[in-house]
Amino acid sequence: MLGSGILKGLAVTAKNFVGSYHDPARMVTQEYPDVPAKLPAAYRNFPFLVTENATDPMGTLRCVACQICEKECPPQCIYIEKSKDKKPDATGKPQIYPAVFAIDTAVCMSCQLCVEVCPFDAIKMDQVFEIAATDRFTGLLLNREQLAKPNTYFHQIHPEEAAEVDARLNAERKAAEEKAKAAAAAAAAKAAAPKPAAGAAPTLPPTTGGPSA
Amino acid sequence: MSDFLEVIPLVVRDWIVELFPTPLQWLVHHLLTIAVILTFFGLFFAFTTIAERKLLGRLQNRLGPNRAGVPKLSILPFHLKHKLWGLTQPFADAVKALTKEDVIPDAADKVLHFLAPVCIVAFSLLGFAVLPFGRALIPVELDAALLYFFAAGTATELAIFMAGWGSRNKYSLLAAMRALAQLISYELPLILSVVPAVLVVGTLSLREIAEAQGGWIFGFLPHWHVFTPWGFAGFIIFLIAALAESNRSPFDLPEAESELIAGHLTEYSGFKYALFFMAEYFGLTALSGLGVTIFLGGWQAPFAFLEFIPSYLWFMLKLAGMIVFFIWVRGTLLRLRIDQLTRLSWQFLVPLALINLVNGAFWALTPGWSGPMLAVRWAVSAALIVIPFLLLARRLNPGRGPRTYRYA
């Protein structure tokens, strides 16, 4: 009958109206500034620099200014200047560090290539998206201090990846420590052992034709 | 107590009028009435817009506006945190509309371009003068109130054409012509749908039409016109025509945002643009008030035990109900095409309204029928509207069913 379609339509919207008050699943509105969106774990955009210790971010940057990311970056938005001196890194090894590390987020295309190529797990993808600035030339150019974020933050946004990275780094650190210990022990043993008689070694005849050490 | 509440607006008015010297009293009396109507329906318009946005949101599973609250006043030592459910939105909208740039095209007829929004608001307000808002609340009591209402309401069409012509723009002019085509098409069923009520009650006075609907059948069924076959049909035709007359969805072709931008309003900006919408809402409110008066019993209470509530509150309640229904329809239906729109009017509503006129005449000729004849009266009246409706629907439908898209 003419008009029954209109009545059906009215019933649908009336159901929406009533349902919107008691069925939260119907409401798709996100009250954004008050209630931020829950981002999926795989969400990524601009990179950040991981630091070991939140209290001393610049002293504990994992980055050693190897400049691989700078070379690989397709839009060339990373700019690094190496330091002249060296600082002990996370494992205690003296390393150079980035004196200047800047990313121009106006150019960055969030490709994650810098993260893929970093051998030190020093640069990771962040989840920030509120990067509005009043000046697009300086406001979007992030420097070392703005980019550095503690490892705990990395754990917060990408828990699985961070745990994996931490396990690997800890294993490396332990290996390095054991190696150092072994080397120290060897050195100590070497020092403790009686010195061989001077000139004895060269007198040994070569066993094979190859050059020996 | 109830009687006192009933007349309290009049008592307050008389008390204020008494404060002025005698020669000025008649002027103050009328100015006061005008001021009250302007203030009340101005605020009613403001809150209709927010109600519309909130209800449309809920009808579409959205929240609707809920941000606007109380601005932080530096004189207050604390900040009122509550957003008041966004209820102050109309005031924020008004400030926004007022602070926008007023652009007038170089080629425009400056006088007409300026006068069109002014006229349209003025004309659409004229209808409020004769509506009986309560048992004792009628701004102007005219014997031919219904005639006056339609005469005043039709003048808005002139203002729409002024807007289209004054913009000196073919696009606006064509859109204004199309708007006129729509308004004139629907003026006919609108007026024809209320004529049966005039036939049955035998008067053009809105006060008498409202009063004629007092009383109850069997002690509980109100004597409203909408509960009679001819009244129900008339009310449905009235609703459709009123929707079209006030340019509301699904008949909002004159300013179809998505396909036409704004039709005859294209060259208007800022507050002038807002004035057109203000007039649209005033027109809608006035037409709803007319519908309430003629079909829904006016200010009469639906049940005898609810009569203690003052009549003007009943009127406003019914008015708000009509507006909510219009918003509901807007949230449901799609916009019609211009040919569908005119066909609906000329091929369907006008014939039905004319048949309903006969129906009203039959009802007016048989007020004395009682007992078993009463059932005959109802059956004949119902048949007089249902059979033509079914025949017309079947006659007009073939070939106009759901469209099949063969290549899509």
UniProtKB/TrEMBL annotation, chain A:
Q: Where is the composition biased (Low complexity)?
A: 193-202
Q: Does the keyword Repeat apply?
A: yes
Q: Where is the 4Fe-4S ferredoxin-type domain?
A: 51-83, 99-128
Organism encoding this protein: Oleiharenicola lentus
Query: What Gene Ontology terms describe what this protein does at the molecular function level?
Result: 4 iron, 4 sulfur cluster binding; metal ion binding; oxidoreductase activity, acting on NAD(P)H; quinone binding
Question: Tell me, what's a Pfam family for it?
Answer: Fer4_7
Q: Where is this region: Disordered?
A: 193-213
Superkingdom as given in the UniProt entry: Bacteria
Q: Which Gene3D superfamilies match?
A: 3.30.70.3270
GO CC list = membrane
**Listed PANTHER family:** NADH DEHYDROGENASE UBIQUINONE IRON-SULFUR PROTEIN 8, MITOCHONDRIAL, NADH-QUINONE OXIDOREDUCTASE SUBUNIT I 2
Keywords recorded for this protein, A-Z: 4Fe-4S, Cell membrane, Iron, Iron-sulfur, Membrane, Metal-binding, NAD, Quinone, Repeat, Translocase, Ubiquinone
Protein name per its UniProtKB record: 4Fe-4S dicluster domain-containing protein
InterPro entries attached to this UniProt entry: 4Fe4S_Fe-S-bd, 4Fe4S_Fe_S_CS, NADH_quinone_OxRdtase_chainI
UniProtKB/TrEMBL annotation, chain B:
Reactions that this protein is recorded to catalyse:
a quinone + NADH + 5 H(+)(in) = a quinol + NAD(+) + 4 H(+)(out)
| Superkingdom to which the source organism belongs | Bacteria
Cellular-component GO terms for this entry = plasma membrane
Record keyword RNA-binding present: no
Localization per record = Cell membrane; Membrane
Tell me the membrane topology, using the record's own terms: Multi-pass membrane protein
EC top class, in one word? translocase
- Keyword field contains Lipid biosynthesis: no
Q: Where are the transmembrane segments?
A: 27-51, 114-133, 145-165, 186-206, 226-244, 273-299, 311-329, 341-363, 375-393
Under InterPro entries, the record lists: NADH_UbQ_OxRdtase_su1/FPO (IPR001694), NADH_UbQ_OxRdtase_su1_CS (IPR018086)
**Gene Ontology terms, MF aspect:** NADH dehydrogenase activity; oxidoreductase activity, acting on NAD(P)H, quinone or similar compound as acceptor; quinone binding
Pfam families in UniProt: NADHdh (PF00146)
Enzyme Commission no = 7.1.1.-
Give the principal location in a single coarse category. Answer: membrane
Q: Which GO terms describe its biological process?
A: aerobic respiration
Q: Which UniProt keywords apply?
A: Cell membrane, Membrane, NAD, Quinone, Translocase, Transmembrane, Transmembrane helix, Ubiquinone
Self-association and partners: NDH-1 is composed of 14 different subunits. Subunits NuoA, H, J, K, L, M, N constitute the membrane sector of the complex.
Q: What does this protein do?
A: NDH-1 shuttles electrons from NADH, via FMN and iron-sulfur (Fe-S) centers, to quinones in the respiratory chain. The immediate electron acceptor for the enzyme in this species is believed to be ubiquinone. Couples the redox reaction to proton translocation (for every two electrons transferred, four hydrogen ions are translocated across the cytoplasmic membrane), and thus conserves the redox energy in a proton gradient. This subunit may bind ubiquinone.
Q: What family does this belong to?
A: Belongs to the complex I subunit 1 family.
Entry protein name: NADH-quinone oxidoreductase subunit H
